[in-house]
Each structure stands twice: as structure tokens, then as C-alpha cells.
């Protein structure tokens, strides 16, 4: 199996640590390695580095190559422009499919946290086996929901197809993106929903057939790029064609339009968390609900349910704090409530054209 790790996002919700020139996937958010390095590390025990591909923006080429010296040079796929996840997945699957059209390919993401790494690899191999048995299929990997999360996509599970080694495989019914709190609470109680981490396994030939069916213009461009791979005009073709693609999410372009009969879901507890926002990172790292999560030189007294990360040599002190996010870097100090984290993206966007634009 081939595995494509996507590492192209800017990560505005983790500002001020994550910025345009040094986005979250290259930063040491959890432990002493970046989330991208951790994403590779959790695969290596069972998957060879030559089967791992990295899809990211051309602007990060000088960062990502030395960041992952174990990945072969030819396994880096660089997007010349940001066109959303639909074209990004299309480019990666076209590049891998040039030489491996019928090999199962897993799509995973670099800015996630997975506690149960062995279990994660087991599920990937299970999905690989299912795709080998049925090449015209797409296997979604769902995380069993832990709470009523409004900030994620949810997968509604259909009837159970079968069970392998205690892991259940379901028919796919539908996806719901960022439900209301009331909907999320009902999903949690219903037991027939799972969080959608965005992981899936399929073959390039089948997925490209879905691009051809639902996004013919995008598919035509992808085929022109694929034809140029390995030729002298590849860089020119990529640079001319890719920026013309419509910005569209993968869900909108493909998943929401596919015939559900081609989609199955493996629902398992992977210990997965999306650490793309500060409050999500806190939930992933905390051992018990309501505890303080800190990093660096931090002292918090009489405080409850806070995340305080200090990336400076100066001591950061908090007293009588509750449900706060405090991020201290060399040039920005962010203080907000956990509920206010969604406003960070708009604040960063508002800095464009101001004297503080360089901080984004």
C-alpha cells in the first residue's frame, strides 16, 4: 500500500504558533517532534518510507525536505498554488497512480494526534485488504465519537457488513459537516455515528474515475499533469494547469456525490484527535477533563481547565484562570477563552494590510 500524508494547510486556528511561513505541521506542538514527523513515525513500523508520499505546498519545499530526510526525493508532491483539498487529493492520487494505478492508497493528514498507533496501523491494513478484494471501492476510517463535537464532520453508519478481529465494518449512509450542538448530542446518543478524520483508502484508478464522473474539467487537467510526470515539461505543465482548478473541497467534489454502494466505513477507537485548534489540542493532551495543560516555563495557581503554552524563556504565570487559552511566543501573546478560539482565524485575516501583517 502507498500512503499520502497531506501537509499543506496554513493552520490559522493554531496562531500565533502556526503561521504562513511556519505552519503547524512543521512545529513541535506535541512533544519534541512536529506533527508531520509524528505522522510519519506512526507509520514506519509497518510501512516502508519508500511507500510514503508527502503532499504539500511548493512554498514549503525548503522546509519539508530536510524535515523528513527518510522520505525519497521523488515522493514529495508539491502543489504550486492553494486550490483546496479536492484538487490537492486529485494531484496526489494522479501522481501516485501514474505508476501504481491499482495499488491501494491511503490518504491521511499531518496535523492530527493518534494515541493508539498500533491500532491505527491495523485499521489501515484492514482497509487495504478490503480495497484489494474490491478495487472499485473507497473505505472511510471513522473514529468512535468521545463527545458531542461540533467542529468535526460526522459519518452516519449504515448496516453492519461484517466484523474482523473485533472491528466492525459498516455500509456508508451519509456525512454531516459541523453539526449543531443539539445534532451532535443526538449523534452521540444514537451510537450509529462516528467522527470523520478524513482518512480513506482506495485505488487511484477508481478515485480518478470518480473525478472524471463528477468533476470532468478537473479530471481533464489532472490527466494532462499526470501525462507530463517524468518528462521535462512537468514543472511547466503543473505550474500552468494546477492554478486554474476551481477551489473545492474533496467532500463537495467527490464524496457527497458518490454512490454510497462504493463506500464502506471502518469505525474504531484510534485515540484520534484533530489538533488543528487550541481547544482540540487541549482535549487530546489532557488525561482528565478539566485539568490544566501546560508547556514550557508555566505556573498556574487556583486555576481550572486551561491550556497555557509558553515558547519563551520568560515565566508565564496565571492565577484564578478558568477555561482560558494562553499562548506566549517571542512576538505575540494570545489570551482568550476556549469558546473564543474560532475567532482566531478572523482576527489573523484582519491583520492583512496592517502594520502587524508580518505576524501572520
Report on the structure:
This protein is α/β, with parallel strands linked by helices and 360 residues long. It has helices spanning 35-41, 61-67, 85-97, 117-133, 181-190, 204-214, 216-228, 234-241, 250-255, 278-285, 344-350; strands spanning 2-6, 52-57, 76-79, 105-109, 112-114, 138-144, 153-164, 167-177, 193-202, 263-268, 272-274, 293-295, 298-301, 307-310, 316-319, 324-328, 333-337. Strands 6-9-7-8-10 form a five-stranded mixed barrel. A four-stranded mixed sheet has the order 12-14-16-17, with helices on one face. The chain has a two-stranded antiparallel sheet with strand order 5-11. Helix 6 crosses helix 7 (216-228).
Per-chain topology:
Layout lengths: L1 E5 L28 H7 L10 E6 L3 H7 L8 E4 L5 H13 L7 E5 L2 E3 L2 H17 L4 E7 L8 E12 L2 E11 L3 H10 L2 E10 L1 H11 L1 H13 L5 H8 L8 H6 L7 E6 L3 E3 L3 H8 L7 E3 L2 E4 L5 E4 L5 E4 L4 E5 L4 E5 L6 H7 L10
Parallel strand pairs: 1-2, 1-4, 2-3, 6-10, 12-14, 13-15, 14-16
Antiparallel strand pairs: 4-9, 5-11, 6-9, 7-8, 7-9, 8-10, 16-17
Amino acid at each position: 500500500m502507498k500512503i499520502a500524508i497531506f501537509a499543506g494547510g496554513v493552520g490559522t486556528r493554531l496562531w500565533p504558533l502556526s503561521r504562513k511561513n511556519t505552519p503547524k505541521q512543521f512545529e513541535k506542538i506535541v512533544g519534541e517532534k512536529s506533527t508531520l514527523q509524528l505522522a510519519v513515525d506512526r507509520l514506519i513500523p509497518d510501512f516502508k518510507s519508500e511507500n510514503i508520499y508527502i503532499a504539500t505546498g511548493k512554498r514549503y519545499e525548503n522546509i519539508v525536505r530536510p524535515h523528513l530526510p527518510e522520505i525519497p526525493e521523488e515522493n514529495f508532491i508539491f502543489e504550486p498554488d492553494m486550490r483546496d483539498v479536492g484538487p490537492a487529493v486529485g494531484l496526489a492520487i494522479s501522481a501516485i497512480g501514474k505508476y501504481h494505478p491499482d495499488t491501494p492508497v491511503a490518504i491521511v493528514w499531518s496535523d492530527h494526534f493518534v494515541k493508539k498507533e498500533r491500532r491505527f496501523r491495523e485499521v489501515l491494513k484492514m482497509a487495504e485488504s478490503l480495497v484489494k478484494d474490491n478495487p472499485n471501492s473507497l473505505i472511510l476510517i471513522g473514529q468512535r465519537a468521545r463527545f458531542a463535537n461540533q467542529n468535526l464532520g460526522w459519518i452516519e453508519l449504515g448496516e453492519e457488513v461484517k466484523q474482523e478481529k473485533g472491528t466492525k465494518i459498516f455500509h456508508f449512509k451519509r456525512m454531516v459537516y459541523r453539526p449543531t450542538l443539539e445534532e451532535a448530542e443526538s449523534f452521540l446518543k444514537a451510537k450509529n455515528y462516528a467522527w470523520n478524520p478524513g482518512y480513506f483508502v482506495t485505488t487511484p484508478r477508481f478515485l480518478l474515475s470518480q473525478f472524471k464522473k463528477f468533476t470532468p474539467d478537473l479530471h481533464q487537467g489532472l490527466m494532462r499533469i499526470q501525462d507530463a510526470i517524468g518528462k521535462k515539461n512537468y514543472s511547466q505543465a503543473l505550474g500552468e494547469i494546477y492554478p486554474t482548478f476551481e477551489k473545492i473541497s474533496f467532500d463537495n467534489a467527490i464524496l457527497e456525490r458518490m454512490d454510497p454502494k462504493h463506500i464502506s466505513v471502518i469505525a474504531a477507537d484510534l485515540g484520534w484527535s484533530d489538533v488543528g485548534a487550541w481547544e482540540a489540542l487541549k482535549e487530546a493532551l489532557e488525561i482528565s477533563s478539566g485539568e490544566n495543560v501546560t508547556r514550557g516555563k508555566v505556573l498556574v495557581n487556583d486555576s481550572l481547565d486551561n491550556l497555557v503554552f509558553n515558547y519563551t524563556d520568560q515565566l508565564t504565570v496565571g492565577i484564578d484562570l478558568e477555561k482560558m487559552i494562553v499562548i506566549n511566543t517571542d512576538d505575540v501573546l494570545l489570551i482568550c477563552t476556549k469558546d473564543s478560539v474560532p475567532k482566531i482565524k478572523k482576527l489573523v485575516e484582519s491583520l492583512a494590510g496592517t502594520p502587524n501583517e508580518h505576524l501572520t
